[in-house]
Design brief:
Belongs to the FAD-binding oxidoreductase/transferase type 4 family. By secondary structure, this protein is α+β, with helices and mostly antiparallel strands. The protein is 36% helix and 19% strand. The chain starts with 17 loop residues before the first helix and ends with a helix. The structure holds flavin-adenine dinucleotide, (2R)-2-hydroxypentanedioic acid and zinc ion.
Length: 485
């Protein structure tokens, strides 16, 4: 195991000592400092069981001030730190690579304010997404993002990964809905840009740098978010479609016919459906008597249930008449809507049950997207793997997942860098919404030009000159060491 080093410059081994732990105890009290080996396990292992670190210390601050004191000490001692939220990330970003100190935001769960006129929510970074949604629901609002991990992911983690999710089509990305944030830099400086304003053109928009920075530029401690009114009428349809060209035609038709009430347009292939149903008996098949290569989840959200239903029905009738869909059903009540979403949201969970899964989160022009799934299926046909494709079609985001018997280098090399090269050749992104983390830190060049990566390095050096924050993540390690040499 490498030492807990952040100082790549002199490569000296900087290990945590007893005085460090005592210092953290003096800031947080005993309850905020986790050292017991057994209790450390969940902080060292990711959701997929793919990444495992060997940290011996997790810190659980409750306030921004405590985060600031922790980081000031780590910076001065050159102790590397991994910010961790709900630990649901899918690229190994929240897990120590070696024995970095884990800074968990799980105890930062205060909701500071909610403004019923503007819909602006201000809260600490450790608030769980679903809890926030329940809170704003009491005031007639909804969170502008939703994802399968809502029960455990935290808003600080969502912001730090710039999570997309199921309703990005409707509400846009967090780059638009985050109005302000508070972050602590590596040296303990608190950067308070926790504005609640829709419009604020005073200088550079610094908060944008922290959105999607995956904990490499600072620790996000609080967030101010714009929440839309909760739509009183939500409908969902589940459709069977004969081929991928028709999937695209159906999307065009849905946008034309459903217009402003369209709130999600998701797809899954037959293999994703079969796998999910086979390992998760609790998931119901909305079309049990139908077999098709592709299925769509189409959701509408609006203010007039009868009007929206009529629109969805009209769209479906037209889609049938034009031969776009071979079968379809519209949910008749909120239970059925939830059941359709339960299927879609559980695909990742099912893959996890099935076995170790290689995940690729790609965006590219929609017409090209499914070709990659087919190519990978052919390329890996001789191996005991299941290749599935699903994702946020409305956002041009494919989730290519390859469930295997084990994580092994030989298999990985058959997939990578092929998938990245394929994506880069189409000017796609090798990380649409999950981030680069540890998994793709050395792969950023497939989607970003050298000059852009060089600028990112300079920003990193400015914000975190000693590289204590989430080292070995996001930026290529070779280039990072060269820059420091
Ligand atoms: P973590 O996993 O704890 O951390 C993620 C990254 O952010 C790490 O690099 C970490 O160091 C950093 N970080 C965390 N908190 C902070 C902070 N306060 N300050 C600075 N850095 C921080 N993602 C999507 O985009 N769309 C989806 O639809 C989606 N669905 C998912 C479904 C499931 C079942 C699962 C398991 C994951 C899914 N994800 C999805 C991936 C994941 O990115 C999100 O779950 C979520 O945004 C991560 O939040 P978290 O609190 O768990 O962060
Ligand atoms: C989803 O859309 C998530 O379900 C997870 O982003 C995707 O597991 C995946 O690959
Ligand atoms: Zn997704």
């Amino acid at each position: 195991n490498s030492p807990c080093l952040a100082d790549l410059e002199n490569e000296s081994a900087i290990s945590l000592n007893e005085q460090d732990v005592e210092h953290f105890q003096s800031i947080l009290g005993d309850a905020g400092v986790v050292t017991d080996q057994h209790s450390m396990q969940p902080y060292n292992r990711d959701w997929m069981g793919k990444y495992e670190g060997s940290s011996s210390l997790a810190l659980r601050p409750k306030t921004t001030q405590q985060v600031s004191q922790i980081l000031a000490h780590c910076n001065q001692r050159r102790l590397a730190v991994v910010p961790q939220g709900g630990n649901t990330g899918l690229v190994g970003g929240s897990i120590p690579v070696f024995d970095e100190v884990v800074l968990s935001t799980s105890a930062m769960r205060q909701i500071t304010s909610f403004d019923e006129v503007s819909g602006v929510l201000v809260c600490q970074a450790g608030c769980v997404l679903e809890a926030l949604d329940q809170h704003v629901a009491e005031h007639g609002f909804t969170m502008p993002l939703d994802l399968g991990a809502k029960g455990s992911c935290q808003i600080g983690g969502n912001v730090s990964t710039n999570a997309g999710g199921l309703r990005l089509l409707r509400y846009g990305s967090l780059h638009g809905t985050v109005l302000g944030l508070e972050a602590v830099l590596a040296d303990g400086t608190v950067v308070d840009t926790l504005q609640t304003l829709r419009k604020d053109n005073t200088g550079y928009d610094l908060k944008q740098l922290f959105i999607g920075a995956e904990g490499t530029l600072g620790v996000v401690t609080a967030v101010s978010l714009l929440c839309p009114p909760r739509p009183p009428a939500v409908h969902a349809a589940y459709l069977a479609v004969p081929d991928f060209v028709t999937v695209q035609k159906t999307f065009r038709r849905a946008r034309q016919r459903l217009g402003e009430v369209l709130s999600a347009f998701e797809f899954l292939d037959q293999q994703a459906l079969d796998l999910t149903l086979s390992v998760m008996p609790s998931v119901k098949n909305p079309l049990p008597d139908t077999q098709a290569p592709f299925y769509l989840v189409v959701e509408t959200s609006g203010s007039n249930a009868a009007h929206d239903y009529e629109k969805l029905e009209g769209f479906l009738e037209e889609a049938f008449e034009e031969g776009l869909v071979t079968d379809g059903t519209i949910a008749q009540d909120s239970g059925q809507v939830a059941s359709i979403w339960n299927l879609r949201e559980n695909i990742s969970v099912a893959l996890q049950h099935k076995g170790p899964t290689y995940k690729y989160d790609l965006s590219m022009p929609v017409p090209e997207m499914y070709g990659l799934v087919e190519e990978m299926r052919a390329r890996l046909a001789h191996l005991p793997v299941t290749v599935v494709g699903y994702g946020h079609l409305g956002d041009g985001n494919l989730h290519l997942n390859i469930a295997a018997e084990s994580y092994n280098e030989e298999l990985r090399k058959q997939i990578e860098p092929y998938v990245y090269e394929w994506t880069a050749a189409r000017r796609g992104s090798i990380s649409a919404e999950h981030g680069l983390g540890a998994m793709k830190a050395d792969c950023i060049g497939y989607s970003k030009a050298p000059a852009a990566v060089a600028l990112m390095m300079q920003i990193k050096a400015l914000f975190d000159p000693h590289k204590i924050l989430n080292p070995y993540k996001v930026l290529p390690q070779q280039a990072l060491s060269e820059q420091l040499a």
